[in-house]
Amino acid sequence: MAATAAGVGLRGIGHTFGNGHTVLRDIELDILPGELVAILGPSGCGKSTLLKLVAGLETPTAGEVLVDGRAVRGIDDRCAVVFQEPRLLPWRDLAGNVALGLPKGVGRGSGRQIVGHWLDVVGLEGFHRHRPRQVSGGMAQRAALARALVREPGVLLLDEPFAALDALTRLRMQDLLAEVQRGAGTTVLLVTHDVDEALHLADRVVLLDTQPPVAGATVATVLDVPWLRPRDRAYPELAVLRADLLERLGVPRPTPAEETTP
Amino acid sequence: MTGRAALGASGASRSGGRRSARLGRLAAGLVVPLIALAAWQAAAGAGVFTPSQLPAPSAVLAAVAELVRRGELWQHVAISGQRVLLGFAAGASVGLVSGAAVGLYAPVRALLAPSIAALRAVPSLAWVPLLVLWLGIAEGPKIVLVAIGAFFPVYTTVSAALAHVDPHLVEAGRAYGLRGLGLLTRIQLPYAAPAVFAGLRLGLAQGWLFLVAAELIASSMGLGFLLIDSQNTGRTDILLLSILLLALLGKTADALLGLLSRFLAGAT
Ligand SMILES: Nc1ncnc2c1ncn2[C@@H]1O[C@H](COP(=O)(O)OP(=O)(O)OP(=O)(O)O)[C@@H](O)[C@H]1O
Ligand SMILES: [Mg+2]
Predict the structure, then answer these.
(1) Has residue A165 been placed in a domain?
(2) Could you tell me if residue A148 is inside a domain?
(3) Burial of B53 (0-12, 13-18, 19+ CB in 10 A)
(4) Where does the record place the ABC transporter domain (chain A) (predicted)?
(5) A4: domain CATH number?
């Protein structure tokens, strides 16, 4: 891996869209190089928007994003994004699509080799020459992940990358991500709806939420997940954190049966 | 390995199937012209029309031979072809560039789109007197008229197609470092390519339409001239021949453009 992990600093980030809709406000967060941070929050609270701000696809209306200590201005080539949808070019095969992610200045031959390597890593060996519409949605999303990985990014931005996968493939891809992250040491921002996914993968879980009279979501809770990866999914301590997170997300603990019986 | 081999074999048979399907489509396309030819022959033979109203196919063949002998056939075809080619090249180029500018840049759209729409509303033949006044009666006005005809369909389809490129794909392209020309050639143009080629084919067809209009009005050569001249001299055989030639040349040009689009689609 050529690129070294970069830290991310969010300094008082706020974002209001052109139509006057305030989505994010006062976000303060420091993400260490090599850290894997999961971002949880209700639908529509601005998680995708936050990733776009870090990637430089949008400019925050307040505050500043720092990558590796330097402010993000415009598209930042230290970051690579996997969007909520695969967003593959239908006229290129999977290899051609993944090649789009190659950093500038990689030769044709070595580029092809890198592309082939990462396609195999995400489990798409034998599908390099397939067009996006010839593969399943889950396979397309894995190709999108490979497109980001060939960039060897300092910061990997993942927007619910596994939401469209079937349950088993999702578990496999989570383990793959953990492995890639361990191997490359890349900083990862992972937006997810899946509390278990967050707890399985993240060093810290950040909860975004709104406090109703004030418009815009902000950091409501930051939770440390202090166990080393790879983690056992059946780890009992995780269950406690899980119940806590779910409660904060508005899913209350089931009341024990003894209490309801008179 | 066996799986890969089986895949290759099925691929080969599929391309064989595709070829025979294409031949079948070609044959199906010839059915109606052959029926029309038979009906024409029958009508001419039965004496429904006088020979000066409807000459037999053989008479038209004889007219071909006559024009070839006089060395005129090639001349008419060549000059018409040249006018369409030059006019189409000019009109389509301007249409592509202005369509791209209007489709991609909102300020250019605000500036140019209404005026071009107003110009398009002018019936094409209304330009003829002005063109003759400014450019005389040589090649200039004919080529310009063909260019006008080719411009509008190309401009309209290209601007619409480029304005409606999937914003998700454009954003993905930007996220992976594409800007300006790179974004245009890697994302926007390939996305819009089918519509762009449909526009080019429409423009070419309209180019032929305007060619005949131009040659009918003021010319001493070309297929449009042949049409009006044969009408004046009562040579219905040559008149029919001109119509057949226009159909044949128009279809050939369209097929060549279709081949080019398929070649380019394979290249991306
Ligand atoms: N370009 C835009 N212009 C105006 N509003 C926008 C724009 N993009 C997003 N929004 C609004 O911003 C809010 C947050 O959107 P965002 O996609 O960031 O939410 P999210 O947390 O990712 O939601 P989900 O979990 O459903 O993916 C939404 O209310 C959305 O309607
Ligand atoms: Mg989202």
Answers:
(1) no
(2) no
(3) exposed
(4) 8-235
(5) 3.40.50.300
Distance between start and end Cα atoms, chain B: 29
pLDDT at B149: 92
pLDDT digits (tens, 9 = 90+) for B58-73: 888 888 888 888 888 8
Range of the domain at A36: 1-78+186-262
* Angle (nearest 5°) at CA B99 between B97 and B105: 95
Amino acid present at B216: L
Provide the shortest C-alpha distance from residue A215 to chain B (in Å): 27
A77, A87, A151 member nearest B172 (Cβ)? A87
Residues 6 or more apart whose CB falls under 8 angstroms from that of B259 comprise none
Using an 8 Å Cβ cutoff, are B186 and B257 in contact?
no
Counted domains in chain A: 1
Burial status of residue A258 (CB atoms within 10 A of its CB: 0-12, 13-18, 19 or more): exposed
Mean of per-residue pLDDT scores for chain B? 85
* pLDDT tens by residue, A171-221: 888 888 888 888 878 899 999 988 888 888 888 999 998 888 778 888 888
Q: Identify the DSSP state of A220.
A: E
Residues of B in contact with A104 (CB under 8 A): 177
Tell me whether residue A157 is in a domain: no
Tokens of residue B174, six digits? 């930007």
Cβ separation A77–B171 shorter than 8 A: no
| Predicted ipTM beyond 0.90 | no
Q: Closest partner residue to B175 among A55, A85, A91, by Cβ?
A: A55
SS3 B247: helix
Which residues, including other chains, have CB under 8 Å from residue B108's CB and lie 6 or more apart? B101, B102
Say if residue B176 is exposed, middle or buried (CB neighbours under 10 Å; 0-12, 13-18, 19+).
Answer: buried
**Mutation to test the B interface, candidates A73, A89, A125, A150, most B Cβ within 10 Å:** A89
What value does the mean pLDDT of chain A take? 85
Residues of chain A with Cβ-Cβ distance to B193 below 8 Å are 91
The reported pLDDT for the residue numbered B135 is 84
Whether residue A124 lies inside any domain: the answer is no
CA–CA dist B71, A7 (Å, integer): 80
Are B73 and B241 in contact, with CB atoms under 8 Å apart?
no
CA distance B41 to B247: 19
Mean per-residue pLDDT, B2-25: 60
Instruction: Give the H or E element holding residue A14.
Output: strand A8-16
- The string of pLDDT tens digits covering residues A2-37 is 457 888 888 888 999 989 888 998 899 999 998 999
| Rounded Cα–Cα distance for residues B155 and B99 (Å) | 4
Overall pTM surpassing 0.95 (yes/no): no
Does residue A230 have a pLDDT over 60? yes
Cα distances from A244 to residues A29, A40, A134, A239, A248, in angstroms, run: 21, 13, 42, 9, 6
